[in-house]
Amino acid sequence: MRPLPTPRKAPRQARSQHMVEQILQATARILEERGYAGMNTNAVAARAGVSVGSVYQYFPNKDSLITALHERHGAQMYAAIDAILDGEAPRTLREHLAAMVHAWLVAHQVEPALHKVLEKEFPFFDAPSQDSAADNNSFQRILRLLERHKDDIGQPDPDLATWMLLRMMESLVHAAVMDAPPRFAGADIERSIVDALEGFLRAGSANQGALA
I want to staple 45 with a disulfide (CB 3.0 to 4.6 A). Which of 52, 149, 163, 174 is the partner? Predict the structure, then answer.
């Protein structure tokens, strides 16, 4: 695989961080309205209200802008997980799963058109999970969550269960946001996603009890 197109540098000061966010917001709106073919750095600069040189200072080409949008999206999703796991209220395993699924669904509904463009047209601009600091942080936090609920979980390998849980949640939430048939109520889909995740985690415990 070719290496992902990446930004030239990361903004460090508040002013430059604000400018980069303006550039990414402009990129997102143009992608939604015109698609990849209608997007270029000149159009992004004009929409963001900055010079083309300011865009090139951080992004060498339009592909690096799309990679940055993927990274921003991933960071937003895993920040939602962190917010749930940082909560002080004790939760059962199902309550944790339900809260995380709901948070991801809500986060995806903020920019649904953009998420659809990114996931359907540019999935190859998404960095592998092992190369993402946000992914790795969330993996460790979910792993610790499962360890706290180990008596409720039938999966024998916590690491594999964590990986499967994150991938299942990501796939099902994306499908719910982008491809859900209109005849299904959103609340029913959300509950069914939680059922699927909980069912996977608990699978094996009944069989282990039967064999004991």
Answer: 52
Token pair of 195, please?
A: 């059922």
Is 173 in contact with 104 (CB distance < 8 Å)?
yes
Give the pair of three-digit tokens for residue 189. Answer: 């889909």
Q: 93 phi and psi, to 5 degrees?
A: -60, -45
Measured CA to CA, the distance from residue 164 to residue 134 in angstroms comes to 17
Q: What are the pLDDT digits (tens) for 98-124?
A: 999 998 888 877 666 676 666 665 554
Nearest to residue 194, comparing CAs of 61, 51, 98, 72? 98
Helix then strand then coil, % of the chain, to nearest 5: 75, 0, 25
- Residue 106 is which amino acid? V
118: nearest Cα among 46, 55, 177: 177
How far is it between the farthest Cα atoms of the chain? 69
CA 176, distance to chain mean position in Å, is: 14
CA 124 to chain centre: 14
CA angle 80, 83, 85 (to 5 degrees): 110
What is this structure's pTM?
0.70
Quickly count: other Cβ atoms within 10 Å of residue 171's Cβ.
11
